[in-house]
Amino acid sequence: MLLTETFKDKKFLKSFFSIAFPVMIQSLLAFIVSFVDTFMIGAVSNDAVSAVYAVNQAGYIFLIAGYGVISGAAIFVQQFNGAKDYKHVRQCFRYKWVVMLALLLIMTPLYYIFGKDLIWFYCKSDINNYVIFELGKKYLNIIIVSYVIECVAAIYSDTLREMGKTKIPLIANSISLGINVVFNALFIYVFAKKDIIKSVEGIAYATIIARLIELIILVAICKIKKFEFDKRVFSHFRIEKPLLKRLFIKSVPLFFNELFWSTGQVLMTLALSQRNGVLSALSIVSTMSNIFSIIFQGLAIGIGVMVGNTLGSGDLKKAQENNKKLYVIGITISIIVGIFMILFSQIIPLLFVKVDANQKILAGKLIAIYGSLLWAFCMCTCFYNTLKSGGMAIHTFLMDFISMWCITLPVAWILASLTNIDIVWLYFAVQATDIVKALIGLIFVKQKKWVKNLTISN
User: Fold this and answer.
1) How far apart are CA 235 and CA 214, in angstroms?
2) DSSP secondary structure, 187-234, as one string
3) 0.85 exceeded by pTM
4) Cβ atoms 397, 253 nearer than 8 A
5) What is the residue-level pLDDT of the chain in tens, covering all 458 positions?
6) 314: which DSSP letter?
């Protein structure tokens, strides 16, 4: 039985957790800090919670686009690293710099110009919409700087993870998150003295400081360790034309996939926010659902390294075996975590003192729904990263695009706009569409077109 075989394979488990555990810890720390952030700002006012949530949802597209634009190179970094071809790993790293800087030059001014419009769409149905909108604008104008820094840091942190060096991003991020919490407390309780406007601006400045320190640590460690991918990056700036062409071909669908998916996520939450007085509840749920990433960021990196690197080394059979075992681990963990989310769903919202009592009750129900569907989200993550590790960029695009734009968004907006269905059932219907997405991914994975070595054609 695959379940028994997987958990008896100590060598495999040791390899997986040595790669994935630092990523899971980093995600856990990020979840704790996000929780503390929401808790701290929740102690100031309900409107402040709603404003920060609205901006974070708008900024979500920015950050996902940043990660998406370099995700095509990730496929090749994983496989070239498996083949120990560091010359081409370095060229992939250079490619990441080029496309990320190009994206930032486009996205940053667009967010300064149009970001406020996204905030208004989120808060317009709320009773205190103008208050939330004004707070959101002040927060957005500052927090954009942190998005730029985080995107640049991703060039280093993602490359390190793709090469299996997951402890370094963990160290940098842990220090950054700790600094974030300290400065949040200082700005909210000391400098702002719980003044709503100053508190909202303060947590934005705290985030910028934390992200900048994280970037400095990542660059410093890479220079001190003298990693191959970071040698002569700019002094010998060259990317071979055949590799550049392949990088571009894989990157374009993955970038648009991330862009369409993140935009779809924003539109989906916009549909949910059409109901009056739900932003604070959605903020609490969003904070709690970050626990999703604790499992699946680790799982995604595990698949990328243990499947992608193995494909690059030419051992296709082992890559398939590793892939199946990773599925077993992911589903098992997601079921356990999902049960805990359900058990504590009614307790967690009580920690947010200033949030309206009705929104606390609503948040508890939505957290329980999220936990009950965690297994489906796990399957989607597994299938997506398996296809990605084998270079199936078009398939990953179709998997996300079909499920999001042809199923999830129509369901969300039809139910939100044309019916009076309760927000709890609306949320369940929207989240449950990921079951269909998992089925689409399963069909693609079973075709086994992803089982190939991308390094041999270079």
Assistant:
1) 24
2) IIIIISTT-HHHHHHHHHHHHHHHHHHHHHHHHHHHHHHT-GGGSSTT
3) no
4) yes
5) 688 888 888 888 888 888 888 887 877 777 677 677 777 777 778 788 888 888 887 787 888 889 889 988 988 998 898 888 989 999 999 999 999 999 999 999 998 898 888 888 878 877 888 898 999 999 999 999 999 999 999 999 999 998 889 899 989 989 998 899 899 989 988 888 878 889 889 999 999 999 999 999 999 999 999 998 888 888 778 899 999 999 988 888 888 888 888 888 888 988 988 887 787 888 888 877 776 667 777 888 888 889 988 998 889 999 999 999 999 998 998 899 899 989 999 998 887 767 788 888 999 999 999 999 999 999 999 999 999 999 898 999 999 999 999 999 999 999 999 999 999 999 999 999 999 999 999 999 999 999 998 887 54
6) T
Q: Are 204 and 188 in contact (CB under 8 A)?
A: no
Length of the chain: 458
Domain boundaries, the chain: 2-446
Please report where in the chains the tokens 């040698």 appear, as a residue. Answer: 231
Q: What angle do CA 32, 33, 39 make, to 5 degrees?
A: 90
Cα separation, 280 vs 41, in Å, equals 11
**Rounded Cα gap, residues 32 and 422, in angstroms:** 30
Spatial distance between the Cα atoms of 204 and 225, rounded to a whole number of angstroms: 32
For 265, residues 6+ apart whose C-beta sits below 8 A from its C-beta are 57, 60, 404
Tokens representing residue 387 in the block: 């296809």
